[in-house]
Every structure is written in structure tokens, then in C-alpha cells.
Amino acid sequence: MKATGIVRRIDDLGRIVIPKEIRRTLRIRETDPMEIYTDMDGQIVLKKYSPMRDITAFAGEYAESMAANTGMTVAITDREQVIAAAGNEKKLIQGKQISKELNIIMDERRSVAASLGEPSYVSVVPDYECRQEAVSPIICAGDVLGTVIMLTADTGHKFTDGEKCIVKVAADFLGKHMAG
What we know:
There is one protein chain. With 180 residues, this protein is α+β, with helices and mostly antiparallel strands. It has 2 domains: 1-49, Pemi-like Protein 1, Chain: D (Ribbon), CATH 2.10.260.10; 52-179, GAF domain (Beta-Lactamase). It has helices spanning 20-25, 56-70, 90-93, 100-108, 161-179, and strands at residues 34-38, 44-48, 73-77, 82-86, 112-115, 132-140, 143-152. Strands 4-3-7-6-5 form a 5-stranded antiparallel β-sheet, sandwiched between helices. A two-stranded antiparallel ribbon has the order 1-2. Helix 2 runs antiparallel to helix 5 (161-179). The longest helix has 19 residues, at 161-179. The radius of gyration is 18 Å and the shape is elongated. The termini are far apart. The model has no long low-confidence stretch (mean pLDDT 90).
């Protein structure tokens, strides 16, 4: 079933313009990689490509290991959504689209450790707030592919330097793993 039908002509270089409304709705940015393939009916299919989705199972195991050893909730994201989560808050964040604020953190390539109410605090997914978070970007070949996030709902807990370091090491490892 076709949700949107727009006719476009191909120019002499083989380019097709994707309308701004569709790009905005699907959150397609100018530099986003797109997968192009054909199906059995002869249709050309464009699909947003996320290299992180290739390692979803591995990321899930990594998140499980981090959560089991730290007692915290751990989330691993790509540029669009939480692709893996483990720990007490898993059901609240797994598979959810990430917040615009988290996308900004990724664009700025910043690591953040903050408490709810602090200026540097960002919501991981819309309509979800934790008490503490540590966020580090996953960088591969100069591109930000996603983030590793450690969360806790414990009001009395403050992340230690060691816990912040675990998040940075995990993000660095996943970036190197993606590079092959």
C-alpha cells in the first residue's frame, strides 16, 4: 500500500529529488546514507541505511554485559532510535525514537554526564526521564553513528569517573568494531 504518491522526473545525471515534506517526516538529512535496491515487481526502493543496525544483536549482548556488571540501565542508539537496551528501564526505551536533544549532542560529538534538572541533561527518548545519565558518541571513520548511554533512576546515585569511563570505552570500542 502506498502512503504517499508523488511523481518525479529523473534528471540527466540520474538524480531524483525527494520532497522536503517526506525528508522532514522521515528525518532524512542531506548527508544520510540511503540504501537503493529493487524488488521483484520492478520497483525501486529507497531505505535509510544505518550501519549500527547491522550489529544490533552484538550491541544487545554488549548492553546486557554492561548492565549486569554496573547495575545500571544501558542503551545503545543509532542516529534514529534505541537499537539495544538492558537493565531495569529497558522496556521504557527499547526501540523508541531518540530525542532531538540527543541528536544535537551527537552532532556536537560531546560526552555528557548529568542529573535531571541540570542544564546539560538531555532526554534520551521523548516522554522518558531518568535521574542520572552518562552519554558518549560512537564515532567511526569520522562519522557519529550513535551513542552509548548509561542511566539510573536512583535519586541518590552520582556517576563516578569510572562509570563515565566505562561509557566512553564502550562507545570507543563499538566505533572501532564498526570500522572492522
